[in-house]
Design a protein that fits this description.
It is a single chain. Helices cover 44% and strands 0% of the residues. By secondary structure, the protein is mainly alpha-helical. The chain has one domain. Helix 2 runs antiparallel to helix 5.
Length: 178
Amino acid sequence: MTTITNTLAGLGALMFIAGCGGGAAEAPATTPEPAEPVAWDDMDMDQRRSFMGHEVTPQMAELFEGHDAERYGYFSCEGCHGETGADRNYAMPNPDLYTLYATGSQEQLDMVNNQRPMVNFMFQEVVPAMKELLDAPDYDPETQEGFSCYYCHPNGGEGTPAAAAGEANSLFLPRGTL
């Protein structure tokens, strides 16, 4: 019985080796060239949804969970767009986010004093990350154009970019509609 077992084992090994090295050489697998990035303003609705789901949400989830894992342990679209985001076509600013006021106003100073850790986190981490993700221009206080906190947060008063624009920035509208 040992001879038969050894013979079968030998045949099995030969068949395994032949299967690994026999036959014509296969062409190496090629990785397709990555597509050129498309600017946010040039994306259609499907591209924006995909970009938000594959790029923005994972990066924002990492930031927010790193800032406060207990509060932001489950981060999704609603984290920025709110529970009514789909009903509003994901328009930003989100009326349910913390209302912001012009720099130097009493309301802004109170918020900075009462919410300093969150203000620092948003200003030092979230705003730069979103600006980079959207390839948005820097905010210019003189023209009140470019990426700012008002891209996402409602404006609580006059003299701020959101008030000057007079309408929401839909996820599906060009950035210039801010």
